[in-house]
Amino acid sequence: MKKITYSLNYRKPKEEYTENCELTVCVRYYQKLDDGKHKVVKKSTGVKCKLKDWDSDWHKAENRHPIKSTDSNYLEKNRIIRNKSIDLHSFIKDLKPLKNISLLNPKVPKGPLHLKWSNHKNEVRLVSPANKRNIDIIVVGTGLAGGSACATLAEQGYNVKAFCFQDSSRRAHSIAAQGGINAAKNYQGDGDSVYRLFYDTIKGGDYRSRESNVYRLAEVSSSIIDQCVAQGVPFAREYGGLLDNRSFGGVLVSRTFYAKGQTGQQLLLGAYSAMNRQVARGKIEMFTRHEMMDIVVVEGKARGIITRNLITGEIEKHSAHAVVLASGGYGNLFYLSTNAMGSNVSAAWKVHKKGALFANPSFTQIHPTCIPVSGDYQSKLTLMSESLRNDGRIWVPKNIEDAKKIREGTLKPIDLNEEDRDYYLERRYPAFGNLVPRDVASRAAKERCDAGYGVNKTGEAVFLDFSSAIIRYGKEKALVKGLDTEDMDLVKSLGEGVIRAKYGNLFQMYEKIVDENPYKTPMMIYPAVHYTMGGLWVDYNLMTTIPGCYAIGEANFSDHGANRLGASALMQGLADGYFVLPNTINDYLADDIKTGPIPNDTPEFDEAKKNVEEKIEKLISNKGSKSVDFFHKKLGKIIWNNCGMSRNEKDLKKAIKDIQNLRSDFYNNIKVTGDKNSFNESLAKALRVADFMELGELFAVDALNRNESCGGHFREEYQTKEGEALRNDDDYRFVSAWEYNPIIEFSKLHKEHLDFENVELKSRSYK
């Protein structure tokens, strides 16, 4: 049995309301399940109705109008209610009775793939410039996604409140994305297209992403480059004056635009300058050194946030008509990662705890080209850009005895003959070679090191060698200059100059950290946690399951499936911020043009603030003896050892129990130094690690639930004879979206089934 009904959302006993009280109209879907229980889905329409204007006998009327004509806007309101009902009905009409799992509606527009976005933009409601001046939007995070969103929304006329925990938006972690940004402009004339970028991204994500979102990403990619060039971003250019491109992993074309090894920094400067223009105009109010502590939901809608002033410790209430999360990923769950040390999951996790679903948390990317761990006291890992794999060749010794000698320091890598080197990626994946996707390259490096061929003291490193590229470029330069191509000293000098022009800052950074000259001896690299494909579940409009709360950039799950292609993070962040969100958020805000300012003195705000204060007080007053870093390191080791590059059922179950025990120990024995009413980094860390503790358990639960291997999620029980990921499309072709439960391992699973109408599902091959 399935039926849809309308109702008013009573928040107090009915007798406490008068006929002039306004209540929100909801649509309810009732479904009788196989076990005799009833499933109820409640959706707010956003429409408010006075009790005197509500027709309690609406179901008897032929036109099914629940709001009487005594309401001056009854026709428009009834239209919205009816459309909400139609949307809900179209979603559930074909569903089979379910027991413990619900299916999610991503609200993907109908029509051909290449027309979905353009048609959708033509159909969404707009907000007039005059009305935008009366609407406030909160943006949490000011990296590329948040910064571009702030600038664009303010340029459109909205009032934006921007929050970041750094002392400047320029300190966002986007600055560390060095290698480049993808776009399907095909300046190279090498066969690239919007469809090919779409296909490569779907394939690279191992067919675990939503087709419509990925195609939209590919479609707007060219506009991103145009936008950034107009801002003055100094992209590299080739001899004819066109923007230059290079290749990244998982593709056979050159579509990555770059500014030496500083692409993220230059793109961020562009977004930052656009933001500052709006700050000067008074359209953006900037709140630096403010960390989001909670989201405030009023009558089912996101209406503001609670923040902590990191300098004074003051707990503040901020209201708005919508909240946008651009707070990045959660790689620091592992403690050691390539992320900035302040990067955290707290903003997204607070939203999750208030009702937003968290999708695919176990889809984490391990980057293959990081500087290896050097010791127990290390607090961060350094990424060497994937762009280096264009010219660097990855190898280990063929002979295990040579590997031992290199580890012992009795043999130098430059003394090893070419025939004694195993260029294992070129050997295993001849079509793509060193430019296989990150998950493939990472597992291959781990396999070689586990087999005893690692080349640093710990045995967890492989070589990234530029000697071949130096000679190749050097001979080319010598030939152009009419010089002796057989003079190897000259050739190497010229070749080093070419490499220095392309990657100089990266080589300099490596030398400073490792104290070895990478022009003369191969770099040592090893996989490390870099990016998270999981995040808050969002629909096609980038809205979470909390109305009015949006998630963009790495904070959402939407575009990369189980593995992200290199140079696509910057693409997604800027696509969401500059082009997608500014179009889709209008449709939601059109209902708020007459709402007026959102008050922050309501019971919902007061309760949220009180809860934050109580949690802080609990942590600050605890009389434990162990530091925050003690617990964070322990958590990171549990996750890395049991849920890292490979997982299995036994280890995942162990991780769940270990994290539960660690979380109990955390609250019993944590010691937070300092006080709550001043700058206190220990307290800030403790609040973030508390959220990591819960996320870590959900991470393991999600990995345990997915009995297949795909992309960055590699279950040892599910692999091919060649050791490659073995997907199960029949049973696991869906997005795992989890509903919060204080008992994490009992979190409820919601699924978004993935339909592939434009690409063929097949096993990835890079051979």
Helicity, as a percent range:
25-40%
The N- and C-terminal alpha carbons lie at a distance of 51 Å
Number of strands: 23
The assigned CATH architecture of the largest domain is 3-Layer(bba) Sandwich
Q: Please count the helical segments.
A: 19
- Strand arrangement within the widest β-sheet reads 4-23-22-14-20
The fold-level CATH name of the largest domain is: FAD/NAD(P)-binding domain
**Percent of sequence in beta strands:** 15-25%
The first-level CATH class of the largest domain is given as Alpha Beta
Look at the structure and give the mean pLDDT.
93
What does this structure look like?
With 767 residues, the chain is of the alpha+beta class. The chain has 4 domains: 2-99, no CATH class; 119-364 and 531-592, FAD/NAD(P)-binding domain, CATH 3.50.50.60; 369-528, Flavocytochrome C3, Chain A, domain 1 (Alpha-Beta Complex); 604-734, Fumarate reductase/succinate dehydrogenase flavoprotein-like, C-terminal domain (Methane Monooxygenase Hydroxylase, Chain G, domain 1), CATH 1.20.58.100. The chain is 36% helix and 16% strand. The chain has 19 helices and 23 strands. The strands form 6 sheets. It has a 5-stranded mixed beta sheet with strand order 4-23-22-14-20. A 5-stranded parallel beta sheet has the order 9-6-5-13-21, sandwiched between helices. A hairpin with a 5-residue loop joins strand 11 (301-309) and strand 12 (315-319). Helix 16 (628-643) runs parallel beside helix 18. The radius of gyration is 27 Å and the shape is globular. Residues 93-99 have low confidence and may be disordered.
